[in-house]
Amino acid sequence: MGVISEFKAFAVKGNVVDMAVGIIIGAAFGKIVSSFVGDVVMPPLGLLIGGVDFGDLAITLKAAQGDAPAVVLAYGKFIQSIIDFVIIAFAIFMGVKAINRLKREEAVAPSLPPTPTKEEVLLGEIRDLLKAQNDKPRL
């Protein structure tokens, strides 16, 4: 089996496609959470602590000189990334928790045994007749 055919077999498996879809949806979800944190959560939080914009929080390590840009430690963006992570982790936790609850409910629901087919019923009757015939005392 050549490398190309092996790759084709690998790439068309359901798990790989599912993983790719999950990564794409996860990236889109990350953008939504970043926008939520940056545009909805952080402005009121900054207003509560005195009108601070977290994205602008930074320490200048070296001022700009000529064409060289300033060296800045932008810890505000780091704080915003941490809040993004916490929100994403919480959302994923809630999703996994809901899925686990559905799996438990599915496992608890008892399934009825299948009803025997006509052939099975007939075979059972034959078995019972043969057993009764063999249990009779012989003379």
Give a verbal description of the structure.
- This protein has 139 residues and is mainly α.
- The protein has a single domain, classed as Orthogonal Bundle (Non-ribosomal Peptide Synthetase Peptidyl Carrier Protein, Chain A), CATH 1.10.1200.120.
- It has four helices and two strands, in the order ααββαα.
- The protein has helices at residues 3-11, 14-48, 75-108, 118-135; strands spanning 59-62, 71-73.
- It has a two-stranded antiparallel ribbon with strand order 1-2.
- Strand 1 (59-62) and strand 2 form a beta hairpin.
- The longest helix has 35 residues, at 14-48.
- It is elongated.
- The termini are far apart.
Helices, strands, pairings?
Layout: H1 3-11, H2 14-48, E1 59-62, E2 71-73, H3 75-108, H4 118-135
Antiparallel strand pairs: 1-2
Helix pairs in contact: 2-3
The radius of gyration computed from the alpha-carbon positions, rounded to a whole number of angstroms, is 33 Å
What is the rounded distance between the termini?
A: 71 Å
**CATH topology, anyone?**
Non-ribosomal Peptide Synthetase Peptidyl Carrier Protein, Chain A
Q: What is the CATH C level class, in words?
A: Mainly Alpha
Q: What form results from the Cα inertia axes?
A: elongated
Question: How many distinct domains?
Answer: 1
